[in-house]
Request: fold
Amino acid sequence: MPAPVVFGPVAFEESPFMKACRCLPSDTVPVWFMRQAGRALPEYRQVRGEGSILDAIAEPELAAEITLQPVRRYGVDAAILFSDIVVPLAAIDVGVDVTPGHGPVVADPFRGPEDLRRLRALEPEEDIPHVLETVRILVGELSVPLIGFAGAPFTVASYLVEGGPSRTWARTKALMHSEPGWWGRLMDGLAELALAFLRAQVEAGASAVQLFDSWAGALSPDDYRQHVLPASRRVLEGIADLGVPRIHFGVGTGELLTMMGEAGADVVGVDWRVPLGEARRRVGGRAVQGNLDPVMCLAPLEVVEAEARRVLAQAGGLPGHIFNLGHGVMPETDPGVLTRVAELVHAEGRAEAAPGGSP
Amino acid sequence: MPAPVVFGPVAFEESPFMKACRCLPSDTVPVWFMRQAGRALPEYRQVRGEGSILDAIAEPELAAEITLQPVRRYGVDAAILFSDIVVPLAAIDVGVDVTPGHGPVVADPFRGPEDLRRLRALEPEEDIPHVLETVRILVGELSVPLIGFAGAPFTVASYLVEGGPSRTWARTKALMHSEPGWWGRLMDGLAELALAFLRAQVEAGASAVQLFDSWAGALSPDDYRQHVLPASRRVLEGIADLGVPRIHFGVGTGELLTMMGEAGADVVGVDWRVPLGEARRRVGGRAVQGNLDPVMCLAPLEVVEAEARRVLAQAGGLPGHIFNLGHGVMPETDPGVLTRVAELVHAEGRAEAAPGGSP
Reply:
């Protein structure tokens, strides 16, 4: 492996990723993959072993190595910190773990307003020193921008309320309607947690952040607007002063894209259900990120290539597109396919200024 | 139980359900619930016992009784035949069963074009006499229109290709892209099957049909247009001559609603993710059906009532709205809640002609 070229944070402003986040023209369309640091990589499986992801995250050298693996392998334009949306909850001892192959599990789910006492302010230097150390190691190693991330209040709340992954979010939806008072306080508490978590990652050296509201697409637009948007805005606007690009992502969010942008995002992540041209219209002047269906990466290579070209075509060759999948890399993906996608995007993507001015 | 009033098929044209399907003004907004005949009802659990749903469907007296139960209990404006989307597949011996609590399972999934030989034309009088007998019994018993139904080619194909329920539809998506030739023939074969199944139900006395493309919302609009829409159109346009309303439904189909209407539907079913006012715009002059989130029916009654009123408000009080859930009744739903929803819709729903003419 050649020694990576080290840029400082300012230098990254000239990187294709940062330019795309800011809707600036660039020589190439940047690309990274959600869950690029993960089980699809043999080198990941080799260093990770079994056990909770939280144990691996707690080891800065290991977490940094896992973060670097996909940058080396795929030649992507951004690294995303190897972490998990429940890290801040675990750090304040809410009682959460991540079961391999299943997801976050909360031993004692939130059932009433008295559970709000289990949330307290995150003190990053005391509560998550290992995460900050990982970021600092990476800033010294990476030749591309580092994306920090947090779970959005709704998605994190859904795990606390349901006790684990859900396909219906029945308790969560009932709660926001029947107990809007304590739901609101729960969301406020989780917004503060996400905000502190993101600020700490940026202050340690992350160049951008992504707020994952993975399951927001389960909600009606009215529910999202009333019961979710205010807390997400509190997070995203709360880091506006840091000046780093803010990406906001969820699955199945076609009807929510406009609001997700208005929550204070610079970039809105889009799954494969909305063509990027239409997504651009919904998010106004913001950048878009996406939107190759990760399932397509299990199809023959010529299918993947055709789909990647379709994404580029629908993005329209204008600035403000970060190529990505529409959801995380599936564990059974052949890493060679993602390498080829990154090559194709770099070779064929265009991000030129629109004739006559800005896009 | 009072003896039901028996109308003939012609009389049903004056029913609120049929008027709504045809976008005609009516005194009341009609309501029925997808999966209204099912596990939420104690009387259903009592008569059904354990075992495959296919065994129960094969007993006309039992299937008719189960179809009638929710009409008696909830006072809904339509009955839906107690049946399953895999009935025609089972009837031509494809080798499919329905595992309780899990869904359709295909013992020997379709893996190559040679499997197309396993599809043959449905001969309703020979292959599904029990279904036709159930319909005939119901036509003599029901005081409301009977909806027949079939699975749309894509959703049925997904079970054949995946071998059972899926959360990713990875094989199915790969197949339509990598083997468009045999995918197309598979879809054609399944379209013929659905068409024959629906025609037979209507000829036996069903007043309307619903084509369930439950999982179409997993697809990008491009994939839907190219690989799915032609087969669905073949089904819906293939029964146009029968003159019965055709309802077309799927989950998460916000980006597909316009195409689902153009496939030949009179009514487009909508889940809770798209407000009905917006859905009306997307489906042009067609009627809409929906869209209370079924999960909300597990919330306290005042929440359910508020949500039902929101649905009515978003439908705009114009003709061409059939109140329904946005997906099937959840098994743990309190039947009393659905009774209350039906009452509320009947008492508060309005379906008046728009000022100045048709909607």
User: Anything to note?
Assistant: DSSP finds 16 helices and nine strands in chain A. Chain A has a mean pLDDT of 94.
